[in-house]
Specification:
Blueprint: E1 2-4, H1 18-24, E2 27-32, H2 38-46, E3 50-55, E4 60-62, E5 67-69, H3 72-79, E6 84-85, H4 93-101, E7 106-110, H5 118-121, E8 128-132, H6 144-150, E9 155-162, E10 172-179, H7 186-209, H8 242-251, E11 258-262, E12 265-275, E13 285-287, E14 296-299, E15 304-312, E16 318-319, H9 320-326
Parallel strand pairs: 2-3, 2-7, 3-6, 7-8
Antiparallel strand pairs: 1-10, 4-5, 8-9, 9-10, 11-12, 12-15, 13-14, 14-15, 15-16
Helix pairs in contact: 2-7, 6-8
């Protein structure tokens, strides 16, 4: 389902017609960093826009060696021979001048990782468009995808919005609804939203440039905000209901991953299922009867969380069945102590 803003917009433009713009070569600056951003960048390239520069976050240490590595967007940009710029901040007036010298007609942003200052927002004639993975004004902020899973929502989506100086507060241009499947994790849902956002960008940008859309103000009275996800969010409290823990396992995969402790070692819960079975002692490992979707589970504050895939500290990830065969003393233990 696509929701487009109503026709007609009155905004200053650099060209009288879109044909004139296409002939001159529409100049776009793209800003993005993680894997989510890559499909939107590729959409711009495939659509024939002149991507005059790609902005992404500075290289960050990664892997066991903590060697600085390029972001997914930087890798994609270099593969296409595009100019890559990695400022530590866009609040430096010199960086704003460097951006303005590129003479972008529009800036497209998809999970760049910085709030753009007003000086940057004022540079392009057609403004700065953001690909945001939620149905704004719901889930403003940096973590809308895990937030939707944690809330138990059955659907979410992507919004193309015109950016202002606030945190995802600008008027919207279009939206696309995406169902949340019961097995979705943040990883799987991010992938689907990334491609949905790219497609929606491809449909929306020409209409915006052709002055065929009116930005629609968000209803601030129903806005919700997301909090940053931290490593501590992955620590399991077995007193929580099984349904809530199941959503947390999905929302915090692949990072920070839900985790507990067993015999002094970290045990990561990679995949699980809630069972309508009464638990007695939160944290106690119980063997499940044949016919259940899991062979082993853990008592919670309400119900049992069936374990499907786990990873013990220092070991590879494996199914719970495989883990149980190698750890005969697991059933009956209390996790998290």
């Amino acid at each position: 389902m696509v929701r487009l803003a109503v026709p007609f917009v009155n905004r200053r433009t650099a060209y009288d017609t879109i044909a004139e713009m296409e002939e001159a070569g529409m100049r776009v600056v793209f800003m993005g960093t993680p894997e989510f951003s890559v499909p939107s960048l590729e959409q711009l390239i495939e659509s024939g826009y002149r991507v005059v520069a790609v902005y992404t976050q500075p290289d960050r240490p990664e892997g066991r060696g903590r060697v600085a590595g390029p972001s997914p967007v930087k890798k994609a940009a270099l593969e296409h021979g595009l100019k890559v710029i990695q400022p530590a901040s866009l609040r430096d007036p010199a960086e704003v001048e460097r951006l303005a010298a590129l003479k972008p007609d529009a800036i497209v942003v998809a999970a760049y990782g910085q709030i753009l200052p007003q000086g940057v927002l004022d540079v392009p004639a057609y403004g700065c468009l953001n690909v945001h993975p939620s149905l704004l004004p719901r889930y403003r902020g940096a973590t809308p995808i895990p937030a939707a899973i944690l809330a138990g929502d059955e659907e979410t989506g992507v919004t193309i919005m015109l950016m202002d100086a606030g945190m995802d507060t600008g008027p919207t241009l279009s939206q696309f609804v995406v169902d949340i499947e019961p097995e979705d994790t943040t990883e799987s849902l991010t992938g689907r939203l990334a491609h949905a956002g790219a497609r929606l960008l491809g449909e929306t940008l020409p209409l915006w440039l052709d002055r065929s859309l009116t930005p629609q103000p968000q209803d601030a009275s129903i806005a919700t905000y997301t909090a940053p996800v931290t490593k501590a969010d992955g620590v399991i409290d077995w007193r929580m209901p099984a349904g809530e823990l199941w959503r947390r396992v999905r929302a915090f995969y692949p990072w920070p991953v839900c985790q507990t402790r067993w015999r002094g070692k970290l045990l990561r819960i990679l995949e699980a299922v809630p069972l309508h079975k009464k638990g007695k002692v939160p944290g106690r490992v119980v063997e499940l009867a044949p016919g259940q979707p899991a062979v082993v589970g853990v008592d919670t504050g309400d119900g049992v969380l069936g374990l499907l895939r786990v990873q013990l500290e220092g070991k590879r990830a494996m199914t719970a069945d495989e883990f149980l065969r190698g750890q005969r003393g697991f059933v009956g233990e209390i996790l998290g102590t």
